[in-house]
Structure prediction request, 282 residues.
Amino acid sequence: MINYWQLLLLGAIAGFTIFLGLPIAVLQHLSSKKKGFLNAFALGILVFLIIDVFSHGYETASSAATDAFSGKGPIGDAVIDLAAMFGGIAIGLLGLVLYETKFMTKQFPQILSVDNLKEGDDHLHRLFHDASAYKLAMMIAIGIGAHNFSEGLAIGQSYVAGQIGLAIILIIGFGAHNTTEGFGIAGPLTGILKKPSAKFLAKVGLIGGGPTFVGTMLGSLWVSNVAYILFLSMAGGALIYVSMLMYNSGRKQTSNNVLMIGLFFGLCAGFVTDLIVTLGGA
Prediction:
C-alpha cells in the first residue's frame, strides 16, 4: 500500500525518468551515418508512441460508441468522446503548425529558408540546421508532454479506483518508457554545431516529463474519460506532425537504409518497454 503523497512522488519519478535519455543530446563530432541512425531511432520511438496513444484513445471512444449503438449507453457520451478524439487530433496537429508559425520562429530566429542559401555557405547551412534541431526538439517535447499527461491520468485514476497494484505497475512501466522518450527528444540535437545547454535540456525535460506528475495529481482527484481521450488524441496529432518533420530531415541526412534500420530499432525499443506494462496485467 502507498499513501497519496507517495503516489505523487512516484508519479513525478515516472515522468522525470525522461531526463535519463536526454544526455545523448550532448554527443558531438558524430559521423552523418551515426547521427542519421540516432535520429531514425528517435523517430521509431515516436512512431510507436503514435500507435500506442491512438490505440488507447480509440479503444475508449469506440467502446462508448458501441455501447450507444447497442442501446447500452447514452448517445451523448459517445458523441462527446468522439468529439474529444477528433478535436484533440486537430488541436495537436494543427496547433503545432500554429505554434511553430507564431512562436518558434521568434524564439529561434533563423534564416527563412535553407533554399535561399548559396551552395558554398556551409557555416550558414549548419546554423540553419542547428536552429531547426532546437525547434524540432521543443515540439517533440510538447507532443510527448501531452502523451505523458494522459499517462499520469491513468496512474491517478487507478489509484483513486482502489487498484493500487495497477497504479504501481503503471508507474514502473511508464518510468521505463519515459527513458526512451528522452532519446526521442534528444535525437535531433545530437551532433549539432554547439551542444545544447543544460538550461535548454532542463526545459524540454520539464515540458516532456512534468505532465506525468500533473496528470497523476489531477487523475487522483478527478476521473474523466473525456480528458483522457482528449489528451491522448492531442498527443497523437502532435507526434504525427513532428514525426513528419523528423522523417523529412532524416531523408536529407542519411541513406534510406540507415533510416529504416534506426526506425526499426526505435520501434522495437518502444514495444519492449511497453511490454513491462502489459506483462504486469495493465
